[in-house]
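Milestone M4 deliverable, item 7.
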Amino acid sequence: MYKHKDLPILANLRKNGRISLTKISRKTGVPISTIFDRMKHHWGRGIKKYTALLDFNEFGFTTRVHLLVSLPKDKRDEARIFLMKHQNVNSLYKINNNFDFLVEAVFKHIKNLEDFIDALETRFLTETVEVHHIIDDIKRESFMEDSKLAKLLLDDRLL
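Output delivered:
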């Protein structure tokens, strides 16, 4: 469970996952030892991973998509394993409303995407695959960056 003193720590980490504990301490007034203890407490539960957000276009991956995938019931587990292991799948979510998965995938070329979809349809007899191309990131990974707003959200004062 979180404590209210965790919110400024988490907000600073959300803004910059590489920020030093010393800088967080200066910004929040929370002792470094407390910050370390709270981060250790949340590691593996609330804090899942420290990572870098990449602009895939800068590395030559010009095709980014969200795929909505519907599968026969008997193919879902096998497809989940395939998608989890596939090198082009960036994020994978189990969803509802007549779909089984939301797949965020990244490819160098649209031809690679088409080959991926063909393999998915052939191997798992997909019922539906909706392709939504991601044109531009407008806002990404910013939820709970502001500790004051995060506190209101966690206290159910904001919707």
